[in-house]
Structures are given as structure tokens and as C-alpha cells.
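Case study 2.
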Amino acid sequence: MIRIEPREAPSRRLTVGIPIASAMLALLLAAIPLSWAGANIGEAYQEMAKGIFGSVFAFTEMLTRATPLIFTGLAATLAFRAKLWNIGAEGQLYLGAMAAVAVGTGWITGPPLLLIPMILIAGAMAGALGMAGPAYLKTRFGADEVVTTLLLNFIILIFIQMMLEGPLKDPMGMGWPQSSPVVDNAILPQILPRMRLHYGLVIALTAAVIAHIMLSKSVWGLKLRAVGENAAAALHAGIGVKRTLMSAALISGALAGLAGVSEVAGLRGYLTTDLSPGYGYTGIVVAMLAGLSPLGVVLAALFIASVFVGADTMSRAMGVSSYLADLVVSMALICVLIGGFIARFTIKITPANKKVSTTDTGAA
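Prediction:
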């Protein structure tokens, strides 16, 4: 007889080791489609490593790609910790970018010390607003936030397209659907000269540290974790479950909005409908790979960004499709889910001729 029983408490070794093992296993499994494509496995991985660590420019490009993933990974982490399934970070990212463009394209003038905080606040508020509706529908009417946040992504993207063809359209853009550029005083400064890496990374790392402290040291973090573990028990203990869920939703949306600000004010300089290649959805993989740990999100984002940047380099050098990166990310998520099951449950095999007690039967 095979029984699946919950572990009393997953060991720290399993909690830390499973995400790392999942990432490594995903890279190993990627060798299968690489071999089918006729590529030399060793050379392919060598080109991937070169694309990440081969030069200062390559390394900074990886960090630049990781910046929005840290924001969206944190957004998913905080929401998921409360069992609030925010699948709308993609739309919230675009709302944050739109707010940054609306504030930072010149109708307000001032020095960088004024404009940069303003666009950051505007983007965070816009992202939070994008999550406020689904959170209210969940807490007030019990609506499924997976459906509402997912469908809202498409509504927001259509709204962005309308704004780029209307009020936000760049009159000097030769008819292209793009916004006016963000003024120089609202641009996030570069960390290194002649590199695209900007101070959005510093803001993202700061947000990760603050999120870790809030979750592990604050009363709010205790309430959030209690609601996520057992909402009914938390309510019985006097915790305002609806208030906690709403606060988690707003902070989650704000973090996703900051990802949009980072891309517009730190990298692109203007808004287009292809601003994000799916950072909002990839952030979910980052959060799961990190085990819903804010500090782990940083490492997971660096891994995912490394896969994408390395796969692009490998594609150019060897003629292998860069979509392999998406395959590695997908396999990493599957490995994490399987590993999470192993961490939470143990499988026990009882011989068929052994008499099973009443207690064992009830457990099974």
C-alpha cells in the first residue's frame, strides 16, 4: 500500500535545496532539445555562459533584464503569501509605465530629485489601482481573482493602445503608436557609463530587502502569513482578513507598477505596447522558483534573466532558436512544483501483507 503523508515540518535543506536543484535540473533537461536541434551541448552551454559573463556589457545586460523580474517576482510573492493569486502583474506593469509617461513627459518641470520620486509614486499608485478592483471583488463578493486579474490584463493592454493612439501619442513619432519621451530630468540615472544598467536595479533590491523585513519582522507580515496559512483561523484570532488581503493586493500591484516605471524611465524612455515581453507572467515563475521568499526572488530573477540573455547569445552564435529560454523557464517551474510536493509530503510504502491499523487507515 502506498500512502502520501504530509511532513511535520519541511527541513531547511529541502526548502533551500529544491529551488536550486530545480534550476540545475531544468538546465540539464534543456540538453535534450539542444541535441535534437543538432547543437553541440558543451559548446551551447559555453556560449550561454559567455553571453552572461563574457564581458562587463554582457553581465550588465543580464542585470538589466533581471530588474523588472525582481519587481514582478516580489509582486507575486507578497500576493501569493496571502493566498491571493495575482495573475495581473503584466497589466499592472503597463499601468505603472503609463503613469510614469503621463507625469514625466514635461507637463511638470523640476529637478531630478523632484521628478524621479514623482514618477515612481505615480507608477506605484497606478499599479496598485490595477489590483484594487480584483481585490475588492474577491473580498466583497468572493470573485475568483485568477480570472479577474488575468482578464484585466487584456483590458489594460487595449486601453494602453487607445491612449497611445490618442492623448499620449508622440506628435513627433512619425505615426508610430508610442508615447512622447520622458524628459531627461525624469530618467533613472545609469549605474555605469555607456551601459544600459540603471538605478531601477537599486530600487528593486531595496524593495526586496524591505519586503523581507516586512514579512519576517513586522506585525503586518505576521498577519499576512497567518491569512495565507489559514484565513478562518486568522479571522477567529481577530485578524482583519479582508483588510490584510486588500493591503497585500495594493502592495503587490504597486510593485508591478514600479516594474513598468523602471522599464520606461530607466531603459526605453517612452511607452509602446511591446514594452514587456511577458515580465508579469515570468514574475510568477520567479516567485515560485524563489519559494515565495523576497530575498530568494533576487536570485531567481538573476537565474531567469541569465537564461534569457544566455539563450539569445547562443541563438546568434549557433543558429539555435532563442525560444529555448522559454522552454528552460517552463521546465524550471515544473521542477519547482514537483520539488515543492516532495518538500511537503513523504511517500510511505506498506507491504501488502501487513495489517493496517485504524489510525493508518484514517491517515491514508
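Confidence is low (pLDDT under 50) at residues 358-364.
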